[in-house]
Amino acid sequence: MKLYHKVFKSHADMSVYLANMDPLISYDEELLNRLTNARNTDELYDAKCSILRDFRDIYAFDASEAEFPEPIGHFDDEEEKIKFIRKKILLQDIAFYLGSVYKKYHSIIYQTHNRLPEIELKRLAIDYNEIYRKAMEDYIATLVTGGQHAVTASFVLPSLIEQGLGMALQNRMLFKCIMQLNDLTEEEKKIIKPFLHNDKVLFYGTEKFAMEKLYRVDVVANYIIDDELGEDSVCKIECRDGEGKTICSAEISFRNGNGHEGEEGLMEADEDSEYDTSELEELREKMFEYIDEKLNPYPEKLDAYVYENKGDNAWTADFACSQCGKFGVSIHEEFLPIGRCCYCGWDNELEKCDRCGQLVDVDVLENGLCPSCSAYIDKQ
After folding, report:
1. What pLDDT sits at residue 197?
2. Among 10, 96, 201, 283, which residue has the least CB neighbours within 10 Å?
3. Which residues contact 211 (CB under 8 A, 6 or more apart)?
4. CA distance 276 to 254
């Protein structure tokens, strides 16, 4: 059964499991058969595309119809909680459908040929081939030993895909610009001829170039100033992405006061000066929302880590960030520098409790003790 009502539940350790697996197991077998029954490269390509299309339909259905346990943590509103649940469902669906099916398929290939298909990456300043081979070794070891998690492959392979997408973006931009060139000399036509085929990777730019297109935000301020009495001055602020599209905007206005000279030769106010920054808060909220959803990879990285460890989170503290109020304060250097919030980037000042060694916010320490240890000692 392709689409059915899934019921997710929680174990005692807060890890999530699917209570009604049977329809999923039988459908996974159907997906696996599409791959194994392919007789040539074209049929295999069609089979993979059909699996991805089915996965898209399945997740769209599960995101709105599946039952999921009430999540634990702080959420600013119901919308944020729903987004969090949908991400959790996406992780579950990826593991159940794509992960499970392709793991079985790759196991069959490896048992048959004693190897998996490999790709050759370009040699640039970074030897991506070496990184790719390390990830593949980790993945193959998981297949052979029957392990559950190929941790290195889980992080390395998506990073390589992201790098490839950045290169593809540069190539597309280059190709598009070249195709707009007109009135070229014969010599110029010879120079650009190798670049007129967009089916191969022809141009490798710097990582900075690609990342600026993908993860860049420009803040532009335009002023109109009128210093006459009783007149308005305006500053328009625009936040734009790497392609120059407006993300959000706001206006700050200042109305200059006005008055007249009184009988005693002193200025008497007819109109007070007004400074209006009311739109800034909405701009701030939209900008943080854009950063969280588009630019910040760390919340998803944290979710993936917690999922890999069956709900166990050793990366972030159990108290909220003092700046944004979210539970994303790093307590593990492998994730982020100690004290840095993965949501807003604020560096919280942490210190270890003298008794238990737990990292806590420096403001809650009392004589070098965390609240729990301090309360325990007070009872003795």
Report:
1. 59
2. 201
3. 166
4. 6
Distance of alpha carbon 137 from alpha carbon 161, whole angstroms? 17
Task: Write the CB contacts of 207 (distance below 8 Å, at least 6 apart in sequence).
Answer: 163, 166
Neighbouring CB atoms inside 10 A of 80's CB total: 15
Q: Looking at the predicted structure, is the pLDDT value of residue 330 above 60?
A: yes
DSSP label of 94: I
pLDDT recorded at residue 351: 92
Closest CA to 224 of 232, 215, 214: 232
Q: Is 309 exposed, middle or buried (0-12, 13-18, 19+ CB in 10 A)?
A: middle
CB 353: neighbour CB atoms within 10 A? 19
The helix or strand, by DSSP H or E, that contains position 235, with its residue range, turns out to be strand 232-241
DSSP classification of residue 214: H
Partners of 249 in the beta sheet? 238
316 close to 335: Cβ distance less than 8 angstroms: yes
Q: Judge whether 302 and 328 are in contact, CB under 8 Å.
A: yes
CA 176 – CA 166 distance, rounded (Å): 15
Please state, in angstroms and rounded to a whole number, the distance separating the CA atoms of residues 284 and 344.
Answer: 12
Tell me the mean pLDDT in the region 231-246: 88
What is the full DSSP assignment across 295-353? Answer: I--HHHHHHHHHHHTTT---SB-SS--TTT--S-BB--TTTSSTTBBTTT--B--EEE-
CA 269/CA 198 separation, integer angstroms: 68
Which tens digits make up the pLDDT trace of 132-166? 888 888 888 888 888 777 888 888 888 888 777 77
- Cα angle 335-210-122, degrees, rounded to a multiple of 5: 90
Which residues are 350's β-sheet partners? 361
What residues have CB less than 8 Å from 174, skipping those under 6 apart? 195, 202, 203
- CA-based R_g, the chain, Å: 28
Residue 201: pLDDT band (50, 70, 90) is: very low
Banded pLDDT at 269 (limits 50, 70, 90): confident
Tell me which amino acid residue 371 is. Answer: P
Pairing label, strands 258-261, 350-352:
unpaired
* Cβ-based burial of 238 (10 A; exposed 0-12, middle 13-18, buried ≥19): middle
Residue 314 pLDDT greater than 80, yes or no: yes
